[in-house]
Specification:
The complex is a heterodimer of chains A (116) and B (109). In chain A, 0% of the residues lie in helices and 49% in strands. In chain A, the strands form two sheets. In chain A, strands 2, 4, 5, 6, 9, 10 and 11 form a seven-stranded mixed sheet that branches. In chain A, β7 and β8 form a beta hairpin. Chain A is globular. Chain B is an all-beta fold and 109 residues long. In chain B, the strands form two sheets. In chain B, strands 2, 4, 5, 9, 10 and 11 form a six-stranded mixed sheet that branches. In chain B, 39% of the residues are buried. The chains are: A mainly beta (116), B mainly beta (109). At the A-B interface, β4, β5, β9 and β10 of A face β4, β5, β9 and β10 of B.
Chain lengths: 116, 109
Amino acid sequence: DAGVTQSPTHLIKTRGQHVTLRCSPISGHKSVSWYQQVLGQGPQFIFQYYEKEERGRGNFPDRFSARQFPNYSSELNVNALLLGDSALYLCASSLATGGAVGETQYFGPGTRLLVL
Amino acid sequence: GIQVEQSPPDLILQEGANSTLRCNFSDSVNNLQWFHQNPWGQLINLFYIPSGTKQNGRLSATTVATERYSLLYISSSQTTDSGVYFCAAFTGGGNKLTFGTGTQLKVEL
């Protein structure tokens, strides 16, 4: 079975530009989460989507937005890019929101974004 | 929010050695995962372990939720074990993971 896929693998942008990152979850998984990993740190939670609705948001500015499509794939959009947005962006999928008990998260290979 | 701390931050082993990585969390957690991040950035699931002990080959993990810690054991380490090991905790509802600070492991010949 295919795992979580992300595109593109690498991306170079300049300050002020906009970027769209894409994620396809494991077949049958309905929940997608996005994480940002800055060099030397652990991943930080950005968003979680389930059944096309936002179910969680981390401490990120409004320049960050996301959506989930009927086929459960997802896009992460970042506007007005800053140098500090340079990071590895990871997508994770799971079966469902899990309610009060976390579901096992499966991560994609990530998109490396460099902002110049 | 919850704090997740890992120790040691860095570890160098000779191939064949054993090691124990520790993960402490500041509050009650619903569940916990251990990951290995390879040099290309891929996060590989190792264990999903809310409590008790699990084993998978040369790796095993133990979580003592009441005492707010988890341990990852690596036996007979190999150079391919090199990378960063993260624990990550689920808190509250939903699937938000709070990651620890990571342990950078290097296994040398």
